[in-house]
Amino acid sequence: xxxxxxxxxxxxxxxxxxxxxxxxxxxxxxxxxxxxxxxxxxxxxxxxxxxxxxxxxxxxxxxxxxxxxxxxxxxxxxxxxxxxxxxxxxxxxxxxxxxxxxxxxxxxxxxxxxxxxxxxxxxxxxxxxxxxxxxxxxxxxxxxxxxxxxxxxxxxxxxxxxxxxxxxxxxxxxxxxxxxxxxxxxxxxxxxxxxxxxxxxxxxxxxxxxxxxxxxxxxxxxxxxxxxxxxxxxxxxxxxxxxxxxxxxxxxxxxxxxxxxxxxxxxxxxxxxxxxxxxxxxxxxxxxxxxxxxxxxxxxxxxxxxxxxxxxxxxxxxxxxxxxxxxxxxxxxxxxx
Length: 337
What we know:
The chain has two domains: about 1-125 and about 300-320, Nucleotidyltransferase, domain 5 (2-Layer Sandwich); about 135-295, Nucleotidyltransferase, domain 5 (2-Layer Sandwich). It is an alpha/beta fold and about 325 residues long. Helix 9 (about 275-290) links the parallel strand 9 and strand 10 (about 295). The chain has helices at about 35-40, 45-70, 90-105, 115-120, 165-175, 185-190, 215-230, 235-260, 275-290, 305-320; strands spanning about 1-5, 10-20, 25-35, 80-85, 110-115, 135-140, 145-150, 155-160, 265-270, 295. The strands form two sheets. The protein has a five-stranded mixed sheet, with helices on both faces. Strands 8-7-6-9-10 form a five-stranded mixed sheet, with helices on both faces.
């Protein structure tokens, strides 16, 4: 079957067409329009501007996806769309466009959870991956540890109680004077510094598998502001490396607790921050230590994209999940449930 999918939960507009046949999953087209240049002017995503940019981009991307895939509307079997979670104004663009497309062409409409879809992105590159397995979704808006029972059954066992991991990276980067988005530059800079230069608090909660990155972020910002007030020289690479080290410590601490509790032998790391080289290395070392199979999406599938929506949409379709014209967007949900 062929699935046409739409993603507009934050600042990426993406339209994809993917084929699912006899166990083979193949992306025929994955067209994405980024808004980085627009939001860089403001140091972060402005929801109202993001919504307008989605409106301007989504129709042209749809035509481009059909051209790249070399298929026609009559070949499409279903339409999938991110309906939760995300920025409400941004979500509504793709939800309404998908509803209109499905209604106009009498196609089934499949609502997709954005967090589930990040995990599903790995199915393209790991076709033999089967649940149950454990997953971590790390992105600008989400930090979740998830016990994946089946392709459509997810139990969130750990989450951030405040800032998401990617949000913390971006906010620290902004204080250090880096342009938005700061994640890539923080990754590069951390590789040049001493991760033991400054001791920052952990973001791992002692009583659970949850995270709290707000306190860590504030500690870094306070360190920077205090040093500037005293006229002390800041070694930006050491700050970036030490902050990254604190983040990695929190992640591995909670993964160790999760391993002891759930004893998983396969793990997926997904989401935009899964592109961070230090996080990828730390999780790979953790998995190697415990003889856990690690499934990592390629960098092109880490960020928000339509292909991941199609992948999860396929499994939701098989499970009988459908929506009608009353489908609405939801800005928040409890994890991937």
